[in-house]
Structures are given as structure tokens and as C-alpha cells.
Target: DUF4126 domain-containing protein
Amino acid sequence: MALIHSILMGAVAGMRSMTPLATVANAARMGALPADSGAPRLLAGPLASAGALAVAAGELAGDKMKSAPDRIVPAGMVARVATGALAGMALAPRHQRGVAALLGAGAAVGAAYLTFNLRMRAIDRYGQTATGAVEDAVAVGSAALIARSAAED
Model:
């Protein structure tokens, strides 16, 4: 079941690159990751958690701006792959962290293209701010539920 959490958190990275990292860092700080997780110790530090939360909040705010780059530009994809891999690894048992990182990164890429397409269609009808707010709620809510479920396994 652990690898499902890695895939799902990777998919969240496809929507919002920093939300999975902030969620996992906060869970690590609170000791709420699975017992044998593959999370690097650095994630559990208060500075790492606060920094990830600040960057994630900035991403949520910046996404609503007209000047925000598309999520599928190379820099955005690198960030999504990296955070999808790291968050996926953090939610899996240590002996599966390599596979979990690959699954998290792959899910991030697939979800980035899927959600980009959906968002572009929704923007035409509902506007950038409204669609961004809905996507934010889905990403943050999903990440919180995935982390909670992973901790319970």
C-alpha cells in the first residue's frame, strides 16, 4: 500500500510542485511519517519544514498571476520531478525508496500534463483565479489526506 501513497503524492506534485514537499516535511517534523520511511532526516528539521511551507505558500499565491509560467516548462517539470521523487520516497519503506522515487516522479510528470490541459480548458470558462483556487484546494487537501493515510499504514 505504501507505493500507492508515493504515486498519489507524486500526482499532487504535478499540480503544485511544492505542496508535497511542504506536506511531507511538516509530517516528518511532527513524527507522522510511516515508521520505516525513506525520508531524509533533513526533512524533519523545523527550518526545512518552515522553508518548504513558505515556498509552497508562495507558489500557491504566484499561480494566480497572469505572468506565472506554465507548469510544463522545463524548470517547472524539474521541480515537479524532484519533489514528486522526494515526497514519494519519504512515504515509502526504506527498502522501496528507489522504486517509490521513480513512481513519484513519473506520476508528477503525467499529472502535470493532465492537469495543465484541464486547467487551460477551465481558464477559458472560469478564469485563472477561480480555477487556480479550486486546484489549490484539491492539491492541499489531497496532500494532507495522503500523508495522513500513509502515517496510519
In short: The radius of gyration is 15 Å. The chain has a mean pLDDT of 93.
